[in-house]
Write a structure and sequence with these properties.
Blueprint lengths: L1 H18 L7 E7 L13 E5 L3 E5 L5 E5 L7 E6 L6 E6 L9 E9 L4 E7 L5 E8 L3 E6 L2 E8 L3 E10 L4 E7 L5 E8 L8 E6 L6 E12 L15 E6 L2 E3 L3 E2 L4 E22 L4 E8 L4 E9 L6 E20 L4 E9 L5 H11 E5 L10 E7 L5 E9 L5 E10 L2 E7 L7 E11 L2 E12 L10 E3 L4 E3 L6 E5 L2 E4 L3 E4 L11 E10 L2 E9 L9 E8 L2 E10 L33 E4 L2 H4 L7 E5 L15 E2 L2 E2 L4 E9 L2 E4 L6 E3 L10 E11 L6 E10 L14 E10 L6 E4 L11 E10 L7 E9 L4 E9 L6 E2 L19 E3 L4 E3 L3 E10 L19 H7 L11 H4 L2 H9 L3 E9 L4 E5 L4 E5 L1 E3 L4 E18 L5 E10 L2 E9 L8 E15 L3
Length: about 1000
């Protein structure tokens, strides 16, 4: 039995690969629009285009459209669309839909330059989006799938290309193909077909932002000449078939010896709902089809047909109904032949349909998005039926197809079931867990879930570490040889509000610019602007507070040209060589961008490489900049590129495809899907390694999604990329959720700092996003090599959100600017919001001022907001709308102990640690806090473990000092530090004094 199931699964995998390539179809043209006829723009009324008795189409005019003239004959005139302030589209609307069950194809030519963008969506008669494409110049085509846009591997060239969408309603799938001017055709794998199967209209429009354009031409709609039978069950194969000439039985295939009439009767063992019959044979046969319905009545099916096509089959389509018998009456001449007949069930029985059928009863995913340790991976499966049913499970490589865990059977009980997979021997990579329902040795449906494995290891500390001029931060046991009864914790910061201006129409956003010290005061520069960040709306302010009273601020308006002092640069960033990774103009103030050519450009200097994100912004927005251009084509928006700024006037784009592209995964991510959750780039101390950190998307499945989250099918997780040549990158996902974290825990970007005098220690402020509570605060992470990162799971965030209604209840945003005083580090929080993540709607924060309970309920319909734990705090949509209307976005500061990011602590029970071998010159201070009856005993040991005379110190509480002197001058030889402590916290050992 198990062997047969194994063969069935192998056969399924093979047929799935075959089904990924769409077959060639015999199609007829229903409609074409080439824009050569100026009547398309003649007036505001709908212009109709007749298509016989099958379809009629109408057009809706759209602002910003015009005819663009080209030199070539094929595209002499084409339609250019330009995005206006609001969404404008034109619609090709079918007043008579393509009949149910027929395959159809929608195709168009696109002329694209970088940043141009047009969407083309096909909808059913009820307006549901069945499928579609988002075509953007020099970017991968995005394909509509499962309610979102997933990134394909079809790269749109600059210039003309053709895009085809082939819809196969009976199989509930569609294919997207890209055809280049040289005829090269590449097809993206099948996507699930939504809607009711029939075609309603084609909806075409431009992609935001305002001003974006695109050109479209030669729009065509074709349909198959006959009802699609691909993937449908042929009931003849399981029926009693009898063929005869008069009373003489014959067998198929059959060759006519003379002119005669052959009767073929298909007696269905089980009554079947069928709607199509087919005869295979000579091209000149005549055929009539009849049926006997469930009442025993004979019914004429379709119309009699004569084989006049140059094909070896003829199809007869008829109204769907349940029959007990189908009869063929076929007339032929001498020498003609009948090969076989087929009768097809109405509904397609294919793998996608079976998979969806199984998915209606069964859902689940791996508990964690990525597995790092050696504990077994937990696949959670939820049986939504009241009965047990059997499944077969296997694990294989995602790309290599190698089976790692052979199929095994499992009986799923109602409710939750957990299946464990041993992963300790699995290397880093992606693996498919396939869950199949197999009955009668036939695969009836399969769910596939991705097991992501990561085995990155931390770099080991040197045998002897030189800490001369550095600080040993107490992050963990990285520099320790022995440790007992010691707990390592992240520090705690305090948030203080600076600006208290309420949101107004021209001051929706409040954004910090800088922070600095001036004559004993802390100064914060910030501005306000409208929700679109328009430059004309910006107003600038200066806030000042005494260092001993940071709760009281004096705020004054300053002129637009007011110059703040330059903020200090070494409060959080280590003083190191400046790497020349910014664009450089030549003597004429110009920069030429072109693609990198290794033969002529030589080896990439990685310390001159910039990971450039092409932002989407209005031209009049604060911070807007023109994207780099290759020739006359700008790099497309919402993509990331590696650019080598080689010399003044010359910058080289290292690849012809984007490094990352903002977009959503399909069934599984391909690795290039990013989102606007930024972290940034940084270098190793020697400038030979570049690191880039960014929020990327991973596909997740219920129940490990939050139903009211706007990205409910995806999780955002920070990924670190590193390279030494600018061309080849390693990647690792960091700060990942663990088993005890709430469902939906993910990231919302962050920032990386290299701590001054931290011996290469990297500090990460990462926004930990709790989707179930729709808020994010600052989680502290650290790394000793910039690539392998660690955090403090189960502990409070470094800076958590405030309570409901407070100025930072929903989100906190820090900037790279910070200052240090004698005992504090103070960061600028450039903006924080009292509103929660889902608050802003289509019009952003601008639209909140008009929200009512009814409008909120309507806008959030289907997102199960009532299930949100926080919703109970409000108790009603009216109270929620009131909170939205009162949302404010303010500037603040984050205050923490100087160097107090991490600490080693001991409580009532005495703890002890001994460091690994260290070397340092100069003196040694300690940053520590000791309770009233606590103590820290510290001594230096030689390499044999003996205490070095004159190097012992006992500190008793109460003590709270960021720089308590221990030893004025350290030994010249290497040593270890032994520390015994109770009721105390130790933050740093400072060898920089």
């Amino acid at each position: 039995m198990k062997c047969n199931i194994w063969l069935a699964l192998l056969l399924f995998c093979f047929t799935e690969l075959l089904s990924a390539v769409p077959p060639s179809l015999d199609m007829e043209l229903c409609f074409t629009l080439d824009f050569e006829n100026q009547e398309f723009f003649s007036n505001e009324k709908c212009a109709e285009h007749g298509m016989g008795d099958r379809c009629r189409w109408r057009r809706l005019t759209t602002p910003g459209s015009q005819i663009k003239v080209f030199d070539d004959k094929e595209h002499h005139q084409a339609l250019q669309l330009t995005r206006q302030e609001k969404l404008h589209t034109f619609i090709l609307n079918g007043t008579k839909e393509i009949p149910s069950g027929y395959d159809y194809k929608v195709s168009a030519d696109f002329y694209m330059e970088a940043n141009d963008g047009i969407f083309c969506i096909v909808r059913d008669p009820q307006g549901e989006q069945a499928g579609g494409v988002n075509v953007t110049g020099a970017s991968p085509i995005k394909v509509l799938h499962d309610g979102g846009w997933c990134v394909s591997d079809l790269l749109v060239p600059n210039g003309w290309c053709r895009v085809e969408m082939l819809f196969r309603p009976t199989q509930r799938m569609y294919f997207v193909s890209l055809i280049l001017p040289d005829g090269t055709k590449k097809t993206y794998f099948d996507r699930i077909f939504k809607g009711n199967g029939r075609m309603g209209d084609v909806w075409v429009g431009t992609i935001p932002p305002e001003g974006r354009k695109g050109v479209i031409d030669n729009i065509q709609v074709c349909r198959s000449r006959s009802l699609s039978t691909e993937g449908r069950e042929n009931v003849v194969e399981s029926a009693d078939v009898a063929a005869s000439i008069g009373a003489k039985p014959i067998a198929l295939p059959f060759v006519f010896e003379q002119e005669a009439n052959v009767d073929i009767h298909v007696n269905l063992a089980d009554f079947a709902d069928v709607s199509s019959a087919e005869v295979f044979g000579s091209t000149t046969l005549r055929c009539r089809v009849r049926g006997v319905n469930v009442g025993g009545q004979p019914v004429q099916l379709g119309t009699p047909v004569r084989f006049i096509k140059k094909t070896e089959s003829q199809q007869v389509d008829f109204n769907s109904s349940i029959y007990q018998k189908i009869s063929f009456s076929i007339s032929g001449q001498k020498g003609e032949r009948i090969d076989k007949v087929a009768v097809y069930k109405t509904k397609a029985i294919n793998q996608i349909a079976e998979n969806e059928r199984l998915n209606a009863r069964l859902e689940g995913d791996f508990a964690l998005p990525v597995y790092e340790g050696n504990a077994p991976a937990q696949l959670h499966l939820f049986n939504h039926t009241d009965n047990e049913f059997p499944i077969t499970v296997q694990l294989r490589e995602r790309y290599g197809q190698k089976v790692l865990v052979p199929p095994f059977e499992k009986l799923l009980k109602p409710g939750k079931n957990i299946i464990l997979f041993a992963i300790d021997a699995l290397p880093s990579g992606d693996y498919f867990a396939e869950i199949s329902e197999v009955t009668d040795q036939k695969v009836k449906g399969t769910l596939t879930r991705l097991l992501r494995r990561q085995t990155t290891r931390e770099r080991k500390a040197a045998e002897i570490t030189d800490f001369s001029g550095e600080k040993l931060y107490m992050t963990d046991e990285y520099y320790l040889e022995k440790c007992s009864e010691i707990t390592f914790r992240q520090g705690q910061a305090k948030a203080i509000q600076v600006s208290r201006t309420q949101m107004t129409e021209d001051a929706v956003m409040q954004h910090g610019e800088t922070i600095y010290l001036n004559n004993g005061k802390l100064c914060v520069g910030f501005y306000t602007c409208d929700g679109a960040f328009r430059k004309v709306s910006r107003k600038r302010y200066l806030a000042e507070a005494q260092l001993d009273d940071l709760e009281q601020w004096e705020i004054q308006r300053v002129p637009a040209d007011f110059v703040h002092p330059e903020p200090p640069g070494d409060a959080m960033h280590k003083n190191r060589a400046h790497y020349d990774n910014a664009p450089k103009k030549d003597l004429n103030g110009q920069i030429v961008y072109r693609y990198y050519d290794p033969a002529t450009d030589g080896k990439v200097q990685v310390n001159q490489v910039e990971m450039k994100y092409i932002r989407t912004a209005r031209a009049d927005a604060i911070g807007a900049e023109a994207p780099p251009c290759i020739g006359n084509s700008p790099l497309p928006q919402r993509t990331t590129w590696a650019i080598w700024h080689k010399e003044p006037g010359l910058s080289l784009v290292l690849t012809k495809k984007p490094f990352l592209a903002d977009g959503y995964p399909g069934d599984f991510e391909e690795g290039i899907e990013s989102n606007d959750n930024f972290v940034g780039q940084y270098f190793s101390e020697d400038g030979k390694t570049l690191f880039y950190a960014r929020g990327c998307l991973l596909r997740r499945y219920d129940p490990f999604n939050v139903p009211y989250e706007n990205f409910r099918r995806f999780g955002r997780f920070i990924t670190i990329f590193k390279t030494t040549d600018g061309l080849n990158f390693e990647r690792v996902r960091i700060s990942l959720p663990e088993e005890n974290d709430p469902v939906g825990t993910q990231h919302y970007g962050g920032g990386v700092f290299i701590l001054p005098r931290g011996n290469g220690l990297h500090l990460g402020y990462f926004y930990r996003y709790f989707a179930h509570e729709q808020r994010y605060g600052i989680d502290l992470n650290y790394s000793h090599d910039g690539f392998y990162w660690k955090r403090y799971p189960g502990q409070k965030l470094f800076l958590d959100n405030g309570p409901v209604g407070s100025w930072n209840a929903g989100s906190i945003h820090f900037s790279r600017f910070a200052v240090e005083t004698d005992d504090k580090t103070i960061h600028l929080l450039n903006w924080s919001s009292s509103g929660y993540h889902f608050y802003p709607g289509r019009d952003g924060f601008d639209g909140l001022k008009n929200e009512t309970g009814e409008s909120v309920k309507k806008r959030l319909a289907g997102r199960h907001v009532e299930e949100w734990p926080f919703f109970k705090t409000f108790g009603s949509y009216d109270k929620l709308a009131e909170s939205m209307r009162n949302t404010h976005i303010n500037v603040g500061i984050m205050v923490c102990r100087r160097d107090g990011f991490f600490c080693a602590t001991a409580g009532e029970k005495t703890g002890e640690f001994v460091t690994k071998k260290l070397r340092a010159c100069g003196g040694m201070n300690i940053n520590a806090k000791i309770e009233n009856d606590g103590r820290i005993e510290l001594s230096l040991l030689d390499l044999s473990g003996k205490a070095i005379e004159g190097y012992s110190k006992i500190l008793t509480g109460p003590l709270d000092n960021v720089s308590e002197e221990l030893f004025a001058k350290l030994p010249s030889d290497a040593f270890r530090v032994r520390t015994v402590m109770c009721k105390a916290s130790l933050f740093t050992l400072d060898f920089s004094k």
